[in-house]
Design brief:
- The chain has helices at residues 30-48, 54-76, 166-169, 176-179, 182-188; strands spanning 4-12, 15-23, 82-90, 93-99, 103-108, 111-114, 150-154, 160-164, 198-202.
- By secondary structure, it is of the alpha+beta class.
- The strands form 2 sheets. The protein has a 5-stranded antiparallel β-sheet with strand order 1-2-3-4-7, covered by helices on one side. A 4-stranded antiparallel β-sheet has the order 6-5-8-9.
- A hairpin with a 2-residue loop joins strand 1 (4-12) and strand 2 (15-23).
- The longest helix has 23 residues, at 54-76.
- The termini are far apart.
Length: 204
């Protein structure tokens, strides 16, 4: 069962919302948690975008999703959660919020740039390989100890954004994003080690 969930949601003529949530492995109800997070964030963003700044709206939407996950965890007596990345496009500005290891890439002028930082343990002598993919930050119903990261960037004509779960980017080489379409890359993934999903956004 693929526990990734994604959303592509036009809000107005110059505003769109994109979300990819990756249900946490090792926990239960991963697909349910990912969908609940997406639905909560979408509802909050659409409701409050006209009354608050985009960065504040994204942070508060994630807080709301975290509270929903907490309530459902209590109700179902089970741990659940997801990594998530959100892109909010308004005119030529894009706001990116994330927790976990769902990545966002910018492809511009034949260059690729990673826009997010993976929130997970880094493999080292002190961290066994089996624990190297443990998330250090995500939405799982616990109080956030740090500010939710939100970046802002300006988009130019011809730019492209890719949002993808770890099952996708671990199955390809990053430079392939420069030379192949998303459809072509997905066809090249023959033996995925995890669920994989991706969203491609092109700016004309």
């Amino acid at each position: 069962m693929n526990e990734d969930r994604l959303l592509i949601c036009p809000i107005s003529g110059d505003c769109s919302l994109y979300i990819l949530a990756d249900g946490m492995g090792g926990y239960t109800y991963g697909d349910f948690a990912a969908q609940l997070i997406i639905d909560t964030i979408r509802e909050y963003v659409i409701k409050d975008l006209e009354t608050a700044s985009p960065k504040k709206v994204l942070r508060m939407a994630i807080e709301q999703a975290n509270e929903k996950i907490y309530n459902e965890s209590v109700r179902l007596k089970s741990k659940m959660g997801a990594a998530v990345t959100i892109l909010l496009s308004i005119n030529k500005q894009v706001y990116i919020a994330w927790l976990g290891d769902v990545r966002a890439y910018l492809i511009s002028n034949n260059q690729i740039e990673l826009l997010t930082t993976d929130h997970r343990l880094v493999k080292s002598q002190d961290v066994p390989f089996d624990y190297a993919s443990i998330l250090t930050r995500c939405i799982k119903g616990k109080k956030f100890e740090n500010t939710i990261p939100v970046n802002e960037l300006s988009i130019e004509k011809g730019d492209k954004l890719i949002v993808c779960s770890d099952g996708f980017y671990r199955s390809i080489q990053e430079e392939c994003l420069l030379y192949f379409s998303l459809k072509e890359l997905i066809q090249k993934i023959y033996d995925p080690k995890d669920d994989y999903s991706a969203i491609e956004i092109s700016f004309q």
